[in-house]
Amino acid sequence: KSPEQPEQELSPQFVEGFAQGMDLKSEKEEQPKLEMSEYKLKEVSGELQPEPFLVENPNRFVLFPIQEHDVWQMYKKAEASFWTAEELDLVHDLKDWANLTDNERFFIKHVLAFFAASDGIVNENLAMNFSNEVQVPEARCFYGFQIAIENIHSEVYSLLIDTYIKDATEKDHLLRAIDTIPCVKKKAHWALKWCDPRVSSYPERLLAFAAVEGIFFSGSFCSIFWLKKRGL
After folding, report:
1. Closest by alpha carbon to 52, among 210, 167, 203?
2. Which run of H or of E encompasses 47?
């Protein structure tokens, strides 16, 4: 400012109004309006009975005596199927990879990219939502073990991409499939839509992730088994 122009003080009313305006703007940006599903609205209003597995359970810290025998048996079956990435032998894979056609390699690359990206979403939902919400210790055991298994799956899918793909740019493209491959991005956004417990009820989200595993993943697994049947 020039010497002839004395500094003008801002009035307290202006400062207060400006601050309030910024606070309101910040709240609007940070807290987008949530659109609850029909069933979530009924759950919040009390029209629906609370989900039994989510009802506060004072005995949730103690596993025995087992109350949910079906869930416990599913946990024991998962436990019995445990394996690690180190058990896989990829020594001969590169030779087989080189014998595939370009179309076959393109196909497998995109299937692996989907697996590598989507397992992270499944795991985040398990760790941040399902295992945190349920109050039944048997279900917590299952979810905890499923998280460990999903970690191993994610490691293996990423390891396969790392083994097969030598070009660093292409490898990065596949590992970031949620952002770089439209069909994977679309599936990922659909799954992420069903991760928010503020928007959807637990049964709805459970059904959505059953679809992720039973449709998205199973469809890709079928394609891999088809290649295996052909001796590839």
Report:
1. 203
2. none
Q: Residue ranges of the alpha helices (H) in 90-181?
A: 93-98, 102-125, 131-133, 137-164, 168-175, 177-180
User: Any idea which residues carry the catalytic annotation?
Assistant: 157
Quote the tokens at residue 232.
Answer: 């590839």
Q: State yes or no: pLDDT of 29 exceeds 60.
A: no
Distance CA 29, CA 22 (A): 11
CA–CA dist 117, 119 (Å, integer): 6
The winner for highest mean pLDDT among 8-12, 87-91, 149-153, 211-215 is 149-153
Amino acid, res. 149? I
What's the rounded Cα separation, in Å, for the pair 21 and 107? 52
Q: How does the average pLDDT of the chain come out, rounded? A: 84
Domain 107-231: which topology?
Ribonucleotide Reductase, subunit A (1.10.620)
Q: How many whole angstroms separate alpha carbon 14 and alpha carbon 105?
A: 64
In the chain, domain spans:
107-231
Q: How many CB atoms lie within 10 A of CB 163?
A: 14
**What digits encode the pLDDT tens for the residues 157-197?**
999 999 889 899 999 999 999 999 999 999 999 999 899 88
Q: What is the pLDDT of residue 181?
A: 92
**Backbone region of residue 231 per phi and psi (left: phi > 0; alpha: psi in -120 to 50; beta: other values):** left
- DSSP code, position 221: H
Dihedral-angle region of residue 101 (phi above 0 means left; psi in -120 to 50 means alpha; beta otherwise): beta
Q: 103: burial class by Cβ within 10 Å (0-12, 13-18, 19+)?
A: exposed
